[in-house]
# Entry
Amino acid sequence: MSKIKKALERLKSDERLKSEAQTKAEETKEEEEKAIPVEKSGEIIYTKTKTIHVDSKKLKENKIVAIDEEDPLTDQFKVLRTRILNRTRAEGKRTIQVSGFGIEEGKSIIASNLAIAMAKETRQTTLLVDLDFRSPSIHKLFCLGDVKGLKDYFENNIPLEELFINPGIPKFTILPAGGRIIGAPEILGSPKMEVLVKELRERYPDRYIIFDTPGMSICPDPLIVSEYMDAILLVARSGVTDQDTIKSVMKIIPKEKLLGTVLNDFLWIDEIMPYYKYHYGE
# Structure
């Protein structure tokens, strides 16, 4: 078989897979619309999305601090939220990828707290998607236990509306990874993934979507995902992320999408704590 013929057959196969994924999305559209949160007397009522109420103390133990208005770090996440909204809202950018440079930098914690802070803003809801198929952690941070997620969507064709979870936080929904996936680059680069991101983005025009992805230097996954994203936020960790890794990542990242870098674990908290202790104590 000639190379041209093989190439044409591969192209037809990709188009067929994309068409099947799109058809599947359309078939579940009616069911997903039932999952739209309904606002009643200022309160969001989830009609289909599974709700798992999690003890706030357990969340704070896992460094999910944005739920607590008296925690000084909550205001820092609100500052980050405001800066991101100022740079994205006017241009209609609503899909934001959060990634580290390497490992152990706290990017999932930053993504989680940012998503909660954004959900508190009055003009939009927020969806947090765990796309770290190498080491998924969002379900652990929110104490969700072993739940289904995108692994089931990709491997078993489980409808999306069965996978969304509200952890008891208003206007905030989680789409877990559902477990590790072997061959993640192929899944993330598939037509089905492209349709998924498009579906999540277009379903609710007032929703920001935060995607938690692996570190940029450790695997191809985040670079593949960046193709679908409107914007990218990087996370570095003081004392962990080295200059060489930063330089290598900055060479490969699509800079036109880069919002900036969050420096995690920076020791400034002691300087502001006296103010917050006095303010909230009074």
In short: The CA atoms of residues 137 and 205 lie 27 Å apart. The domain at 3-281 is CATH 3.40.50.300 (Rossmann fold).
